[in-house]
User: What shape does this take?
Amino acid sequence: MSTTGFDYSKVFASNVPQPAARWTGFPRYNFVGGHNDPEAIPLDGLAKAAASALLREGKLLATYGLGQGALGYTGLREFIARKSSSHRGIEATPDDVLVTIGSMQGIDLVNRLLVEPGDTVIVESLSFHGALAKLRKIGATIIGAPLDEHGLRIDALETILRDLKGRGVRPKYIYTIPTIQNPTGSVLPLDRRHGLIALAREYGVPIFEDECYADLVWAGSAPPALYALDPAQVIHIGSFSKSLAPSLRLGFAIAPPDVLGRLVALRSDGPGALEQLVVAEYFTHHFDDHVQRLTIGLRAKLDTLVDALAREFGAAVEFNLPDGGIYLWVRLPEGVDVRRLIKPAAEAGVAFNPGPEWAVDPEAAASSLRLCFALPSHEAIREGIAAFARVSAEQTGIPARSANVAARTVAAQ
Amino acid sequence: MSTTGFDYSKVFASNVPQPAARWTGFPRYNFVGGHNDPEAIPLDGLAKAAASALLREGKLLATYGLGQGALGYTGLREFIARKSSSHRGIEATPDDVLVTIGSMQGIDLVNRLLVEPGDTVIVESLSFHGALAKLRKIGATIIGAPLDEHGLRIDALETILRDLKGRGVRPKYIYTIPTIQNPTGSVLPLDRRHGLIALAREYGVPIFEDECYADLVWAGSAPPALYALDPAQVIHIGSFSKSLAPSLRLGFAIAPPDVLGRLVALRSDGPGALEQLVVAEYFTHHFDDHVQRLTIGLRAKLDTLVDALAREFGAAVEFNLPDGGIYLWVRLPEGVDVRRLIKPAAEAGVAFNPGPEWAVDPEAAASSLRLCFALPSHEAIREGIAAFARVSAEQTGIPARSANVAARTVAAQ
Assistant: This one.
């Protein structure tokens, strides 16, 4: 038999992507993505939870969906319902909860339920890269709704809705991250939440509320979820990626029965049962103390990041302190295009998320970047920001002085 | 604010499904689906594996993909590569392995890579319901390749390939379950494996090999996987659903780099990391003894099922004893349409998989049904088959006598 390779390109479907690049490891100073703090993973607690849950309910693993249907493990849905009530003001039963493969599956399913090519959606002008990428792939028309330091501007949203209505367009949803906005870190005040819901009702547009980060509020609590204020008008999603660990791939959706039952019908698979068992067991006993410990650690890392930026960049960077979460959204002076810094920064071991990827209008965020401070150690944060400042100074002349050393720009060398 | 509900139907995309039915629990005698034996779940072993893996590598959970890239947990890919070599003759490195969300994600991704509406695929005339359903949803033209008691008939396949070539059609793949065929339970002999590969090469058609059940061979070993015989021509998928537990949602794909890298690029999410850690840890130490214990138990349940069928149905049913796995494919006399038995059987607490759902030509399998014997206890198998025989006798007059009691058909009452 011949050992020559078969040419698969002869049978590829149209528009198949190029092969993914081979994995070459994380950069030394990794401010990218939504990773969490490795030191905050409760190793002992999870090991004990795994043992308890397995010995009590492990036989259920032999049946698809633990023999409990398509919504997910009952124990986890019970915890989600309880936590959503106590922490987010949401009145939901376990039957109103769908456990998803991260919150990303929730976004995928809601898009499949509501959004077709050419449909219009309203998204905060700065928003989650993954949500924007999915909508662009679908071919949706994305309208960016302006933000200020407290989140969505209700007056501006009203103008958008009125304008769309005047053109006969009903948007499929308003996608918002009201509680620790991604990337800006703001928490939408209660009066704006009421204003948002009133507008959504007036214009007959559902709200798609993404509360992935809502557990990580510095103040310990935030205004109630939008879903709590109007369950009929809101599809709510959340995640355990930020409150526990992103590699678990566990999220959830809470929605009216008419919606939830269709999200179930649309999906072909759910998350693994062992993770559901273990997370339910651990969080049923340790949610508040774990999240409190995690949040204290994250806030300390934010302090380190802010100090490092002040020391290295001085007045050359601007940011609003986030109300929680794992990101700092940083603006460099106008005229700097952070996309030009990606490669030289990578060569210096520094990775960051360029602002344009987090923006409905990429050019409007050309000078901004998102820094995730959860994964790197305090030392790596300090060293990484110093390295980034050197790269930035070389490439752009900004900062002009870094840690009291004047920049030598590439041009000046 | 009004509390009336929002009418989501105004914003639904076209062709959204009806809401999934609410879960009402398993039937009493459950011969449906691919569930496993609850008594064979290694509770202690998994609990210990969870503790070891978490304490050693749990911090990795803080990073997406355990900080190891998109293929999956390195430890699990190492185990899969080792096991595929020792048990299936496959020479693969961990970088040739993609860990998937069950084998179903493998099927989805391979379809997205290769199959578009109107494309032709060759599938064994009786095959996995899920694979058939996906292909029908895509709108592929499915050609059924005849089977006999040893699996795919190579002569018949050649006729199909020649005929298609004569019409200018190159099928996108030949989907086969060579080792414990689903639903028939056969193992394809080595000479047919070579014949299949020779045909695939001659006609330039990739083989899509599904080895979900290959770990559960009664004889302990089977001929090498097709992938082992010709890695360039075969895309290979497998699963931990049958060798361990279906609710884990862990499977894998092994494929040439050109294919594997594109499967990675096509998917938006992978399986949970905790399950990967735990299964790698457990199976690295206990694969052979676990699978041996599991298989012995399954074979005993098959014996109970075969005894019960003989007692209740006598000569009215036909089947070939499977070479392993969890299914028995049963033929009732021609003229019986098992679809008419679904409802009355359900009323008697008995659920089975109707043959037509496992067939490229549903009508040709109208008298067949698939019984999964892994989940029910020995007692439930006996009682369930007795209950099913009563239903069948009432509805069809077959069996005419059951456990020495003559049937009273519905018509005769």
